[in-house]
Amino acid sequence: MTIRPGLPAAALLAVAACGGPAPAPAPVPTPARPAPAVAATGAGIAESDLRLRLGIVAADSMLGREAGGPGNVKATAYIAAELARLGLEPAGENGSFFQEVPLVRKGPRPDGWLRAGGRELRPGADYAYLGGLGPIPIADHAEFTAAPAVYGGRLGDTVSVIPPDQAAGAVVVVGAPLGRDGRPAFGFDPRLLQRYRGAKAVAFAVLDVAPPELRAYLSHPQVTLREDPAEAEPPREGPLLLFTTAEAASALLGRPVEGALPGAPGQPVDARLGITESPTAFPARNVVAVLRGADPARRNTYVALGAHNDHVGTAEAPVDHDSLRAFNRVMRPQGAEDQPGEPTAEQAARIRALLDSLRRARPARLDSVYNGADDDGSGTVALLEIAEAMAAGPRPARSVLFVWHTAEEIGLFGALWYTDHPTVPRDSIVAALNSDMIGRGRAEDTRGGGPGYAQLIGSRRLSTQLGDLVEAVNREAGHGFTFDYQFDAPGHPQQYYC
Questions:
Q1: What is the DSSP string of 303-323?
Q2: Backbone angles phi, psi at 93, to 5 degrees
Q3: Which are the contacts of 202, defined by CB distance < 8 A and separation ≥ 6?
Q4: Nearest to residue 80, comparing CAs of 314, 426, 406?
Q5: Where are the beta strands (DSSP E) in 86-164?
Q6: What is the pLDDT of residue 220?
Q7: Alpha-carbon distance 71 to 267, whole Å?
Q8: What number of H helices and E strands is found in the chain?
Q9: How far is CA 401 from the centre of its chain?
Q10: How far apart are CA 135 and CA 137, in angstroms?
Q11: What is the pTM of this model?
């Protein structure tokens, strides 16, 4: 069961198909058993304790807790130190609270180039490319000389696309599809990579109409999970996937891409392109602990409680914190899930009123840290409070497995790694509950919000028993929660559970 999981940046490309941090300093040694932190919280779950912990986890000094960065190392060290102070059992690797998740930074080779008719095209500005993309036949590297460019037709126009034999050995340029307004729009069709698998490359002329988040994703190296050598696939056969601007596509063809005829020959193209990878500068770590159960017959089974410990790091350039906060409060109440557009007059007035109230409280200030207090500092500190309360009170019959996953924001990699490499027998985990973004839920935050409001996702997906139990305990113990299942509805466009 999970509450509002985040959307990794890579999902933007997946949706289309169906700001980077400052360089980190050299790594520092990681102690296996961190020194206990000074006790500053009580055994009961208290708002004051949650605020104290959140002030630590979401502080500017944590640098946005980016997985593979120094801030996430500091945050996970704090969590582990608290667990040691509370007396929980380490359940990570080598007797520690940590399970290292092997992340790598992947990006275009720095010595690569792409030339059309002798003209050098600029990486990031004129073109971008990706390596292997799931099951699609696509190359990670490409090196060729004088490959002919050919116009393959406009994306979405299935009548005029060229046949596969005309693409063999060529760089196929595919025009952007037309939107309802008749202007070029973003699009991408992996079926064309299958159709033109004999091509050197397939270039979709959509980079300058791509969503800003996707263009930033394509133009920067990305952190991802290292491929397990035991599960490594053989090198993929197929073309290189390129995204170009319309102007760069015209350079490849030697004529404007708008108005080009399918099959029209273009310029000779030279390329040396490829994907390189290197480990992240700092380790990415899950934090894992066990509170041993009281019943000898059931203490080797577990209820897993989880939250993710990472956030998205820092911005490339600072912005006016309060101005952005006021804008997002009105235009992006669901965060990155909302595409804000231009404010209406009424929305602009609300933004101005919020900003004026903030300006009365303090002067303008620049900020470059994505603190992640809600996503998922709130779940992280709630889990610590639960661990402290359970460690001080009567032990449950079953053991409780606490897992703070890393790298959720970039692809759920910490959870994926733990699922594939659990530190307790996987079939001994009888239930798993995850808390994400539980720092909101007031009436002003969401429709139907209030003191007992909670969104539930997945509580009846694998079995109705967990959902029924949650409802029964809430009702019979009088906890007063009001559960919102709207985001758990099958077919919901945001597909949080899936």
A1: EEEEEE--B--EEEEEEEHHH
A2: -105, 145
A3: 152, 167, 171, 172, 174, 192, 193, 196, 239, 240, 241, 242
A4: 406
A5: 89-90, 98-101, 103-108, 113-116, 119-121, 127-130, 141-154
A6: 81
A7: 48
A8: 12, 20
A9: 24
A10: 6
A11: 0.80
Sort residue 173 into left (φ over 0), alpha (ψ -120 to 50) or beta. beta
Structure tokens at 138: 């696509």
- For 268, the token pair is 């000779």
Question: What's the full length of the chain, in residues?
Answer: 498
Q: Count CB-CB contacts under 10 A for residue 136.
A: 16
- One-letter amino acid at 390 equals M
Q: How far apart, in whole angstroms, are the C-alpha atoms of residue 334 and residue 314?
A: 20
Q: How far apart are CA 327 and CA 343, in angstroms?
A: 9
The Cα 339–Cα 201 span in angstroms is: 32
- For β-strands 453-455 and 482-484, DSSP reports them as parallel
Q: Which residues pair with 103 in a beta bridge?
A: 225
Provide the sign of the torsion angle of the four alpha carbons 257, 262, 266, 270, taken in this order. Answer: positive
pLDDT digits (tens, 9 = 90+) for 442-493: 888 888 899 899 999 999 999 899 999 999 999 999 999 999 999 999 888 8
* Terminal-residue alpha carbon distance, the chain: 12
Q: 375 pLDDT exceeds 90? A: yes
**Which residues have a Cβ under 8 Å from the Cβ of 359 and sit 6 or more positions away?**
322
